[in-house]
């Protein structure tokens, strides 16, 4: 984890500064500054429009009674991309645009979903539910969880669908 923080807060900013100076030496300092400002403004506008679009999709799915899992992940990706686009630098802009633009975001979404599924299977991701002052966790043993569900006023049921021939008395 320490290595990840060193990369995020030391190596990447140092590379960004190097790229800014290198590109600035080629195209000029003012042009480099304008590119950084324009990508920040463009990125913020794009992140806002994509975020609102995803929010509408979340509301539609919830209105249908569906769980908007994919849309929530995409919303987080757009938020992260927007933050990266507001950060001055060329590498962060490239990665930020890839998170905000729908085409590349959907491709990255496949990778993120596989990563999340893999971590759930390994037990690295746990879900927590709080109901009536009780705490349920996916890490609990199954028999503890079933006992808690019965005590938590949640009713589980199974059903079978009748065929038309049984409804008509045949």
What does this structure look like?
By secondary structure, the chain is mainly α. It folds into 2 domains: 12-122, no CATH class; 128-154, no CATH class. The protein is built from 7 helices and 2 strands. The chain has helices at 2-27, 29-63, 69-86, 90-100, 102-122, 142-151, 164-167; strands at residues 128-131, 134-137. A two-stranded antiparallel ribbon has the order 1-2. Helix 2 (29-63) runs parallel beside helix 4 and helix 3 crosses helix 5 (102-122). 13% of the residues are buried.
Write down the domain tally: 2
Helix coverage percent of residues? over 70%
**Overall 3D shape:** globular
Rounded average pLDDT:
81
DSSP strand count: 2
Number of helices: 7
The major β-sheet equals: 2 strands, antiparallel
Which strand order do you get reading across the main beta sheet? 1-2
Bin the strand percentage. under 5%
Instruction: Name the poorly predicted regions.
Output: 141-152
The end-to-end distance, rounded to whole angstroms, is 67 Å
Oligomer: single chain
Structural class: mainly alpha
What is the gyration radius calculated from CA atoms? 24 Å
